[in-house]
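Whiteboard transcription, Tuesday session. T.W. wrote the structure tokens on the left side:
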């Protein structure tokens, strides 16, 4: 068999597909592997370039194959899809991955360490449990978990709301479960805070207005040292905070934001931007300086939602600079 130089690996739960080519670009390996065979196969294979798609388990396999001497590159599925020549199946997907990983302009995902993955799992456990608890009640209450604790007892005791007794018992059980989940959320928050206090990158990000504990720790765990992005705009694009384009014939047409990439992190940044805008508008109503001239100018000509996205985009770019250059946010320098 000719020496294999590039491998496209289609990840799955139990069955993996391998597509390998030699230095001439000729396909010399088409093979299906079970999960238990993957490490054995790559242990015997001479070091080569391995391409995989970003999906569940990709960071684990990146670390495992890199430990065997291979150069592993992770790509977003959206960037691999244009190289799919025919119908979608494991064999064609592996070939497309093998083709895409060789492109000089391809953008790659930065592999995450086990610690980074763990901190992101804490984030998603926190948000998912909160949403699940609020959805279980089916009662119109103001946003936030505090409103449940404050008003739930009154709802159960209200004899005029026509709730059947069986429903009241059910709601009482759900409230007890809710309280248990809130306690669990608080424990997760303490773990996040402990991690944040011992992570220099996360602390550096928290100095940016609109970024708190949750956003700082999520950004630090996702972006790392910023080496995976060429500039701040690439990070903003990865988070879906840049406009979609439908340009043709020399005419530029910009649409709404692309909403690609990490939706959870994008949501955190936009909510943080809303908090900054709220602070600026409140100060302006009192006749005080808003404290952010750039936001004040945007508010005069744009809708508040557009301002929030623009500020989130700017925050993401600033975050990349701080991570890349290992600096702390300084308002005077940014304003200048």
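and on the right, the sequence the group agreed on:
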């Amino acid at each position: 068999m000719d020496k294999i130089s590039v491998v496209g690996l289609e990840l799955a739960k139990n069955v993996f597909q391998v597509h390998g080519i030699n230095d001439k670009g000729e396909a010399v390996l088409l093979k299906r592997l079970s999960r238990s065979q993957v490490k054995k196969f790559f242990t015997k294979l001479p070091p080569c370039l391995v391409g995989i798609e970003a999906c569940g388990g990709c960071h684990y396999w990146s670390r495992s194959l890199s430990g065997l001497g291979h150069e592993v590159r992770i790509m977003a599925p959206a960037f691999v899809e244009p190289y799919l020549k025919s119908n979608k199946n494991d064999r064609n997907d592996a070939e497309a991955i093998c083709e895409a990983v060789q492109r000089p302009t391809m953008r790659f995902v930065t592999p995450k360490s086990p610690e980074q993955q763990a901190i992101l799992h804490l984030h998603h456990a926190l948000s998912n449990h909160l949403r699940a608890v609020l959805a279980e009640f089916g009662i119109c209450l103001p946003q936030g978990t505090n409103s449940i604790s404050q008003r739930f007892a009154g709802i159960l005791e209200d004899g005029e709301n026509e709730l059947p007794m069986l429903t009241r018992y059910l709601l009482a059980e759900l409230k007890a479960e809710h309280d248990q989940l809130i306690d669990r959320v608080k424990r997760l928050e303490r773990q996040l805070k402990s991690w944040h206090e011992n992570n220099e990158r996360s602390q550096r990000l928290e100095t940016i207005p609109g970024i708190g504990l949750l956003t700082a720790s999520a950004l630090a765990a996702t972006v790392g040292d910023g080496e995976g992005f060429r500039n701040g705009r690439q990070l903003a694009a990865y988070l879906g905070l840049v406009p979609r384009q439908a340009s043709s014939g020399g005419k530029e047409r910009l649409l709404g934001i692309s909403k690609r990439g990490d939706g959870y992190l994008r949501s955190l940044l936009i909510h943080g931007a809303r908090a900054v805008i709220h602070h600026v508008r409140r100060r302006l109503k009192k006749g005080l300086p808003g404290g952010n001239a750039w936001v004040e100018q945007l508010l005069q000509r744009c809708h508040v939602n557009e301002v929030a996205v623009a500020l989130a985009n700017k925050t993401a770019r600033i975050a990349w600079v701080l991570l890349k250059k290992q600096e702390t946010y300084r308002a005077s320098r940014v304003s200048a």
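Someone added at the bottom: The radius of gyration is 25 Å.
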